[in-house]
Amino acid sequence: MKVVTTKEELARELAKLEGTRSLVMTMGALHEGHLSLVERATAETDHTIVSIFVNPLQFGPGEDYEAYPRTLDADVALLEPAGVDVVFAPEVEEMYPREPLVRINPGPVATVLEGKTRPTHFAGVLQIVHKVMNLVRPQLAYFGQKDAQQLALIRTMVADLDMNLEIRAVPIKREESGLAMSSRNSYLSQAEREDALALSRALADGKAAADASGAAGEVLAAARESIEGANVRVDYLVLVDPETFQELEAGAHGAGLLAVAAYVGPTRLIDNMEVSIA
Ligand code: PAF
Question: According to its UniProt record, which residues of this chain constitute the active site (predicted)?
Fold first, then answer.
């Protein structure tokens, strides 16, 4: 496995690879969730490239850009036995030698939920995803369903800009407790980890209501009742259309996505669960 930090070195390594290639983009601080993306990528293509880059453009003022965990040596040690061919871990100056002037406008889906609280987030995500896809030119790229809105926007960018690759989604990895794996879980104290379980519990309670043939209104009510009184500050807990991310009406039918964002102490966590409303 080669670890490279410049676009030039990356191009040199890519030129040596024959066959299909996949891309797994990360911000590092790798956990089992990331490794499940890598596992799919290495199984389904001849070569896998993993990028590790804490992208300043996707953090807003006052967010955790400076504090975001940077654990390159540990990340490389996890990727080495996983069958990865190349790790691309550039510095900020390599990716953004100057403030980019041409920007990707992610459109209306980026204005709700995550985009409402973090208005510049998805434009920053799509900017780096587009750049790294251009550099790596993979046939397949893998993204986690935990960032469901991000995944939907990346799919839309790939379709709307005729980018020549396929996006594959990988299910959320959860700890035994139900907590969705996230690099930001490392910010949580033991007590906060307990508090954080309120998120996945609310989603599971909403899903149980859907599985018991509850109407959309009942599904949402079950999830909201579940999280009421928990030691978290809810940003949103909604039942949305999984493509448009618009909230579903109380009488809606079909596929829905229960999505939650909440602050556990100062840490903002997100989670989601697919539900089917009869
Ligand atoms: O999901 C993430 O970790 C990031 O948003 C991504 C896709 C690596 C872009 O920086």
Answer: 34
**What does the alpha-carbon distance between residue 13 and residue 49 come to, in Å, rounded to a whole number?**
10
How many angstroms is it from 88 CA to the middle of ligand 1?
14
Helix, strand, coil % in the chain, rounded to nearest 5: 45, 20, 35
- Please compute the mean of the pLDDT values over residues 45-68 and round it to a whole number: 98
User: For residue range 158-217, what is the model confidence (pLDDT) as tens digits?
Assistant: 999 999 999 999 999 999 999 999 999 999 999 999 999 999 999 999 999 999 999 999
Given this model, what pLDDT does residue 276 score? 97
pLDDT at 249: 93
- CA-nearest of 215, 272, 273 to 248 is 215
Q: Please confirm, yes or no, whether 34 is among the known catalytic residues.
A: yes
Q: What is this structure's pTM? A: 0.97
**C-beta pairs of 235-243 under 8 Å, 24+ apart in sequence:** 235/117, 235/261, 235/262, 235/263, 235/268, 236/113, 236/116, 236/117, 236/260, 236/261, 237/202, 237/262, 238/113, 239/206, 239/275, 240/112, 240/113, 242/148, 242/152, 242/274, 243/152
How much of the chain exceeds pLDDT 70, in percent?
100
Ligand 1 near 270 CB (within 6 A) = no
